[in-house]
Specification:
Zinc Finger, Delta Prime, domain 3; alpha/beta; flat
Length: 416
């Protein structure tokens, strides 16, 4: 009994010393922030959690959006054992240990959940070692990842899981979570914090949909601010800016998006003077220059495209210059790229072509690769006829043959 008390006290002290984001992590579904499309009332996952019928799944989305938190809630809501591994530090032996112990528990009717953080970092061999257990239901697998699972994970593990895509949290979601943390016993209530609405709104905006970032900034602001004469810790907008290291916009939200739209349309419309002005106006208002650099790269491909491929090269170079040397020096290569994109001939053939290709990829998801361009290092069946692939260099660099699946063999995405 004495050991249990000591462990309980130890756990309490560890929890108290944890970062604010960890202390405020919800333990029940009703306290979960955001992702209503996944866990809102009557959604598939919310019903499965309440019924203790959650199967293997993958949570995919940006950092700080609740992937690990939701996995923990599932563990707390079910009468099952919960094991957590991190793909960076775990290996095949760890997974086998979890599976062996899960088989023993299953014999007594107790299920085991395996949460794998950063699951995209597991190799094929590591992923394959849990396939059989997932298939048999020995373990229920929950993977969390910031990478697209259809590209970063093995198809075998993805096919055995339901994929749920998380979205960046809204400013309102983050704002309500921050307010709750200030008055919560688990949060900052003991600090007696007084924070302005402007400061809270700035933290919610500047966090970019990442609640962990917002929590960390708020906690930093509180811990580095001295108490006033009345014993309160007072946080204003300036302190919030310093804590999250992002200057507040000097314009309202509507004007900000209007100016961003004007910048993009000026690039497309070949008006270099307007594009330079809106670029300067946005930077002066506190806009992140990296956002404008990314838009410049996107428009180089979307609106100039194949009409002048140097536009994309110059835009990417400007973005790299911003990354390496920062502002204000990087405004020169950025301005050079802006002028080049505006003066370049325009073509949207690339965006039209790739949009059509993605539409066909969705509509013809079962289209087969023609036999002659399959990977034929081995025969796929004993009765397979040998397919003849024509090596273009044997014909001077080009030879006519089919590369598209049969359903799309005459489809053209680009104009000649």
């Amino acid at each position: 009994m004495k050991v249990k008390q000591e462990n309980s006290l130890f756990d309490f002290e560890v929890k108290k010393a944890a970062p604010l984001a960890e202390r405020m992590r919800p333990e029940v579904l009703k306290d979960f922030v955001g992702q209503k499309h996944i866990v809102g009332e009557n959604t598939v996952l919310s019903r499965a959690i309440k019924a203790d019928k959650v199967g293997s799944c993958i949570f995919w989305g940006p950092p700080g959006t609740g992937k690990t938190t939701l996995a923990n809630i599932i563990a707390n809501s079910t009468d099952s054992h919960f094991e957590k591994l991190n793909a960076v530090s775990s290996g095949v032996s760890d997974a086998k240990r979890v599976i062996d112990e899960a088989e023993k528990r299953l014999a007594y009717g107790k299920k085991t959940y395996l949460l794998l953080d950063e699951c995209h970092r597991w190799s094929k061999a590591q992923s394959d070692c849990v396939l059989g257990a997932v298939e048999r239901g020995t373990v229920l697998f929950i993977g969390s990842t910031t990478e697209n699972p259809y590209a970063a994970l093995t198809p075998a593990i993805v096919s055995r899981c339901r994929v749920f895509e998380f979205e960046s949290l809204s400013e309102q979601d983050i704002l309500s979570a921050l307010k709750k943390s200030i008055t919560s016993e688990k949060g900052l209530k003991s600090f007696d914090v007084e924070i302005t609405d402007e400061a809270l709104e700035h933290l919610a905006w500047a966090s970019g949909g990442d609640l962990r970032t917002a929590y960390n900034a708020l906690e930093l602001a509180v811990l580095t601010t001295d108490k006033s004469q009345d014993g309160k810790i007072k946080i204003d907008k300036t302190t919030a800016e310093q804590s999250i290291q992002k200057k507040a916009l000097s314009v309202d939200e509507t004007s900000y998006y209007d100016m961003l739209s004007a910048f993009c349309k000026s690039l497309r419309g070949s008006d270099e003077n307007a594009a330079l002005f809106w670029f300067a106006r946005l930077i002066s208002a506190g806009c992140d220059p990296m956002l404008l650099a990314r838009r410049l790269v996107a428009h180089s491909a979307e609106d100039v495209g194949l009409a002048d491929t140097n536009a994309l090269v110059l835009s990417v170079s400007a973005l790299k210059a911003l990354e390496k040397i920062g502002m204000p020096e990087a405004r020169l290569p950025l301005a050079e790229a802006i002028i080049y994109v505006c003066r370049a001939k325009k073509s949207n053939d690339v965006v039209v072509a790739i949009d059509q290709a993605f539409e066909d990829a969705k509509n013809f998801a079962d289209a087969k690769v023609p036999n002659h361009i399959k990977y034929n290092a081995y025969r796929r069946s004993t009765d397979q006829k040998e397919a003849v692939y024509l090596y273009p260099h044997d014909f001077g660099g080009y030879v006519e043959q089919q590369y598209m699946p049969d359903e799309l063999k005459d489809k053209k995405y680009l104009k000649k």
